[in-house]
Amino acid sequence: MDRIRDLASRKAAVIFSKSSCFMCHSIKSLFYELGASPAIHELDQDPKGREMELALRGLGCNPSVPAVFIGGKFVGSAKDVISLHVDGSLKQMLIDAKAIWF
C-alpha cells in the first residue's frame, strides 16, 4: 500500500493499468484527450505488480485496474472516472490538481 501511495503522489494524475486492459486504454485515452499527461503504471510489467494489484483491491478497486488517482487522492475505477467525465467534474478535478491548465 505504501508503494501505491508513493507513486500516486508523485504526479497530478496517475493511472494504474495493465497493458492488455481495454478499459485502461479507454481511460488513458480520455485523459490524453482532456490534455492531461498522467503517470501510467502498468502492473503486468512491474515486478511488484501483483502486490500493487492486491493493494488496489484493498482500496475497493474491483476490478483492480484501471485505478485512477488525481492530486494524490483515489478517484476510482473506469466507471467512476466516466461518471465524473459525464457530469463535467473530471476536467475540474484535473485543473484543480494542476494536471491540465485552462
TrEMBL record:
Location within or outside the cell: Cytoplasm
Residue spans crossing the bilayer: none
CDD domains xrefs: GRX_GRXh_1_2_like
Entry keyword Cytoplasm: yes
Pfam families attached to this UniProt entry: Glutaredoxin (PF00462)
Similarity comment text for this entry: Belongs to the glutaredoxin family. CC-type subfamily.
PANTHER family with a match to the protein in the record: GLUTAREDOXIN
Protein's UniProt name: Glutaredoxin domain-containing protein
Species the sequence originates in: Rubroshorea leprosula
